[in-house]
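Shipment paperwork, digital attachment
Item: protein structure file
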Amino acid sequence: MFITTEDNLARDTWNDDGTLDSMASYFSCELTGGVKFVEDDADLTGITYETVTSTPQLEAELSDVCKKMLADTDWYVARKTETDVAIPTHISTLRTTLRTLI
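Attachment content:
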């Protein structure tokens, strides 16, 4: 769903060495105009927000953001193919979510 909010949404957190510390319980991303996308089943308890009506422009922007994020994580897939180093679970989960949203 598309929303506007001033509250902080769940985010992945990272350790100083670049490893994942904790994974957010839902996917969200920022779009233009202060609009944010949040997965429909996200638990927004304690978050004050207003729902924004979906538009073709918002859908297109979300798709573009997802495609960029997929491209940014393609190297994990290449690494797995070339060296058999596992793709981290959180990256696989994220990529599945992104493909679903496109």
